[in-house]
Amino acid sequence: MSICDLCDGQQGKSSRSKPHDQLVKVGEARLYRGVQPRGFEEQDYQCQCCAAKFTQSSNKNDLAWTLWQG
Ligand SMILES: [Zn+2]
């Protein structure tokens, strides 16, 4: 599995960081309510360069940017 340099750099970024230029949203954000007082949301992205898929999560217990595949 190989990912582009942009995706490599995206891993480990904070939840407030923006997706890199080649990442496009896939579907709608998923909202999770009730688990925590403020809930959280997840948004899927896919890279147009290397086709890697990321999920961005605002859940503090998860990685902000999770890479699924390259
Ligand atoms: Zn990429």
Catalogue the unreliable spans: none
Global geometry: elongated
Mean pLDDT: 89
Number of helices: 1
* End-to-end separation: 5 Å
Bound molecules: zinc ion
Q: How much of the residues is beta strand, in percent?
A: 35-45%
SSE series: HEEEE
Largest sheet: 4 strands, antiparallel
Strands ordered across the widest β-sheet: 1-2-3-4
What's the total count of β strands?
A: 4
- What percent of residues adopt helix (DSSP H or I)? under 10%
Q: What this model shows, in words?
A:
The structure is a single chain. The protein is mostly beta strands. The protein has one domain (5-69). Helices cover 9% and strands 40% of the residues. It has one helix and four strands. It has one helix at residues 5-10, and strands at 23-32, 40-47, 53-57, 65-69. It has a four-stranded antiparallel sheet with strand order 1-2-3-4, with no helix packed on it. Strand 3 and strand 4 form a beta hairpin. It is elongated. The chain starts with a helix and ends with a strand. The model has no long low-confidence stretch (mean pLDDT 89). It binds zinc ion. Zinc ion (ZN) is lined by residues 3-4, 6-7, 22, 47, 49-50, 52.
Write the layout of secondary structure elements.
Elements: H1 5-10, E1 23-32, E2 40-47, E3 53-57, E4 65-69
Antiparallel strand pairs: 1-2, 2-3, 3-4
Features:
single chain; 70 residues; mainly beta; 4-stranded antiparallel beta sheet; 1 helix; 4 strands; elongated; binds zinc ion
Question: What's this model, at a glance?
Answer:
The chain is built from one helix and four strands, in the order αββββ. It is mostly beta strands and 70 residues long. Strand 3 and strand 4 form a beta hairpin.
